[in-house]
Design a protein that fits this description.
DinB/YfiT-like
Length: 195
């Protein structure tokens, strides 16, 4: 009996610690900013801004929003979200210090795609804010078969991060065009939602 009680208390404690260490991937509001300015915390704040904007750009999307395509040559909203997901994979793989190779996402539901994109963003931000993080360690490594192409983190900023922000703006524009505009209470400057 004593052993069972100790085991249950240990499991409950482990779950509580794990929950505290797991980064929130909600981004309903932007997280508090870091206490100090470093290259890593500034980039983490950019990534958190991406998470906040993505959260609200995708909140409440309907089937007709996801299938909206502004022209014959353009991606649909769903295809744009798949592209954003792939950009966040490049980002999170860089912070994991592992090579990136292409991954198909067409089999994911919208909810799964959204949740995994937000999780990638949150994990990358958390890693960037972690003690001892150094941008120079987070190279962008593309794996194509046996060949690897390596870029410094600089390319992450003007590449996947900036590109993802660009495409989130497209999603906002697309949803407005399909009759489902962004919540007008979203305040991107403060990272909050007006009551």
């Amino acid at each position: 009996m004593k052993y069972t009680f100790t085991l249950l208390v240990s499991i409950a404690f482990a779950i509580m610690v794990s929950a505290q260490e797991t980064p929130s991937n909600s981004y309903e509001e932007i997280p508090d900013y870091p206490a100090e300015f470093t290259a890593e915390t500034v980039v983490a704040r950019m990534v958190d801004g991406l998470g906040f904007r993505y959260y609200w750009a995708t909140e409440g999307l309907r089937f007709e929003d996801l299938s909206f395509r502004p022209g014959d040559e353009a991606r649909s909203t769903r295809e744009t979200l798949e592209h954003i997901f792939s950009l966040t994979l490049v980002l999170v793989n860089s912070t994991r210090m592992i090579p990136h190779s292409s991954q198909e996402v067409t089999d994911l539901s919208f909810e799964e795609l959204r949740a995994q994109t937000l999780a990638n963003i949150a994990e990358a931000s958390q890693t960037l804010k972690s003690e001892g993080a150094r941008l120079e360690d987070f190279q962008v490594i593309f794996q194509r078969g046996e060949a690897q192409t390596i870029f410094p983190f600089w390319n992450q900023i003007n590449g996947p991060i900036a590109d993802a922000l660009w495409h989130v703006g497209q999603v906002v524009s697309f949803r407005r065009s399909s009759g489902n505009p962004l919540n007008p209470n979203v305040q991107v400057f403060t990272g909050t939602v007006r009551e």
